[in-house]
## 1
Amino acid sequence: MEAALQVFIGGVFTGAVYAVAAVGLTLIFRVGRVVNLAHGSFFALGAYIAYQITFLGLPALLGAAPAAAMGLLLGSAVDRTVVRPLRRETLTVATVLLGLAILAEEGVALVWGISPHSVPLRLPTLLVGRIVLGVEQATAAGIAALCLGAVGLYLRTKPGLGMRAAVADPDIAAMAGIDVERLQTATF
């Protein structure tokens, strides 16, 4: 029973991280009407940037900001240079994004190799009864909950309502003065 509970708790923590990635993918699809097949690759590239920073001897938390910035810049660049010019050709966009995903995967393999890597966090574990809870897992789940809550709150603000309007009908949102292209780039 304890082993099952341990696996369940680990699954909940891992699922929270996947939920953040899924929310990003869903926002991209709903706002930009694009299936971003490279989304996971962008997520992984950010993780490898964080790994590289810790590999250089810097603290792990210091790697989070550059990793997030890289994801932001890469997503914006891909939207402006690839997705925006081809937005009406959904199959072409999906194919190009799949190609970018493969390119990113091969680039990661070239730079970091094919063996898995992890960011070494020197955090203690918590023992609750006979259940072991990793502080890094709990922290990741907490950050995921904060991110999901922030998205929920954002969608109730004026820019968030603009995003929801762009999802409902981009043409009418544009006529109402909402910069739909900027919103699409921001979500990508």
## 2
Amino acid sequence: MSRQKVLIIDDEPSLCRCLKQWLEERGFECASAPDAERGFAYLQSHTVDIVTLDNKLPGISGVEMLARLAIEAPDAAVLMVTAEVDTRKAIHAMTLGALGYVIKPVRREDLFAQIDNALERRRLSIENRELTLRLQEKVRLQTAEIRAAHEETIYRLVKAVGYRDEETGDHVRRTGQYSELLAATIGWPAEQVEMIRLAAPMHDIGKIGIPDAILCKRGNLTAEEMSIMQHHTLIGGQMLEGSYSPVLQMARDIALTHHEQWDGSGYPRGLAGNAIPEAGRIVSIVDVFDALSHARVYRPAFKDADVEQMMWAGRGTKFDPQFLDDFMSLRPEMWAIASLTVHGRTDVADRRFDDLLPATRSLQPN
């Protein structure tokens, strides 16, 4: 078993020799330095278990020494050696990282009592740190597993809608990406940005309760069919209600409010302005953008320029004006996301924009 190493930093040669003799008789391997710089130079190339440190070295205070030792020898047990009997200074040294305090003239029994105590505290500190690191790694791995399982569950729920309506399956995946980018641009914290990436794809989960004859109908819906279609917001909210998961709580808000409009003309509750949760306002914008830029069973996709014109037309009426400004500042990134899945997309070049308006059910998708 290797011997424990001690570095003595003291400018009194006689004390250094005395301490070195006592410590070597006790089985320690010792080195000494007459000043701070040579002591730190030694620590650059050697690892030590204990540092005995004179509280008054030329050119540097004990406080400064402790601060440097915390960086350059963080695992060493530091004993302050001083001629001053000052309880306040001793306590202050302990708060700065010293594990012992020895008063000059140094008595052999006092030195070893302080060393034994400091080494035990050092051992416990190192063990506690290693245990903490192991626990943190275990928690990190378990959290990653839980997050992966959570995310898989979300996308399996979303697939339940996607299998019935292929365009919806593509649409919900893109919605998460748009929402993540817009939320980050607005200034959401990273944790919430990640949450909306997972929550936004569930905005249309309530469509699982809408009959196929309505969900997949080619052509405009009747007033009665539109009323049934609009119930997907309430169905989605009920499906996601009561969860303790922050992601599912956000998803519930989104499912309920992504068809609300800034001026209060949306559904299901006619909320207006800031009464609409921010997540719902974000998804309202990206949902419409994606719906207009991709084909639906009842119409082709609009041209890019027409999509942008229609989005601007909803500023301050259908959409939060500031959020829309932020969204439109990201047009290159948003169009890149839109192009990731191009199932069924058709640019319409031979029809006037005004002619296409009657073919849409509204600026808001169903």
